[in-house]
Specification:
Layout lengths: L8 E5 L4 H12 L3 E6 L2 H9 L5 E5 L5 H14 L5 E4 L14 H29 L2 E6 L12 H21 L4 E8 L5 H14 L3 H10 L9 H13 L7 E4 L7
Parallel strand pairs: 1-2, 1-4, 2-3, 4-5, 5-6, 6-7
Length: 255
């Protein structure tokens, strides 16, 4: 396994915190230029200020097709075509199926499935044209198993893993790889929100709720964002790995 040559143009969607910020830092440390995409420009600026290499703040809502087009156009104008795309923007929602509204369902599909599709579709022409590209979608272990109380989230992550597999098969001879990284519970603000929701529903303290999530992973702790970023780096470096859902979950899903 060898790292791609430094200086690739990378776009990290959902780069303002957590996994996205860790991925941006890992790519920057390897000498790549990193465009940071997210809704909060000020937070993206803070992430960019902490990177050792060049960064570009690109505020955009990934559920807005016109905003995606404008973001790519700006990156191409200032740097050139995107060569590495990391689709990390996403969110979750928790409710029993009978309590899941149409709006909740549509929001999960739009953010966790349709947005990565649009980002991928926009990035591919230049990647296939040059004969080299890397696309990595941050999915979830629930892309591979069902889990109670998160039907909409689970369905969206199953869907995005299917998108990754189909794209990888379609692009296998093009020089472009497409993979998913499937984390378990990661120590991020998104997991903090999950912990707060568990505590509110159960009446337990947040420390107890956090410990419960940690125990659900065989290693007995939450995953670190840097560990997810390492899996992304692997996907960039190994041209023979494509169409995979790489688990970073402490052994909770063995596949």
């Amino acid at each position: 396994m060898t790292a791609p040559e430094a200086g690739r143009i990378c776009l990290v969607a959902g780069a303002s915190r957590g996994i996205g910020a860790a991925v941006a830092l890992a790519l920057s440390r390897e000498g790549h230029r990193v465009a940071l995409l997210g809704r909060d420009g000020a937070t993206l600026d803070e992430v960019g200020a902490g990177l050792p290499g060049p960064s570009l703040t690109v505020p955009a809502d990934v559920t807005d097709a016109d905003a995606i087009e404008a973001a790519f156009s700006r990156i191409e104008r200032e740097w050139g075509p995107v060569e590495v795309l990391v689709c990390n923007a996403g969110a979750g929602t928790a409710a029993a199926i009978v309590d899941t509204s149409d709006d909740d369902w549509a929001r999960m599909l739009e953010l966790n499935l349709t947005a990565p599709f649009r980002l991928m579709r926009r990035a591919l022409p230049s990647m296939t044209g040059s004969g080299w590209g890397r696309i990595v979608v941050i999915a979830s272990v629930v892309a591979k198993r069902g889990e109670a109380q998160v039907a909409a989230y689970t369905a969206s992550k199953h869907g995005v893993l299917g998108l990754v597999r189909a794209a990888a098969a379609e692009l296998a001879r093009s020089g472009v790889t497409v993979n998913a990284v499937c984390p378990g519970y990661v120590d991020t603000p998104m997991t903090d929100a999950t912990i707060e929701a568990i505590a509110a529903r159960s009446g337990r303290g947040t420390d107890d709720a956090r410990a419960t999530l940690a125990r659900r992973q065989p290693i007995g702790r939450l995953i670190e964002p840097d560990e997810v970023a390492d899996a992304v780096r692997f996907c960039l470096a190994n041209a023979a790995v494509t169409g995979q859902g790489i688990n970073v979950d402490g052994g909770s899903v063995q596949s």
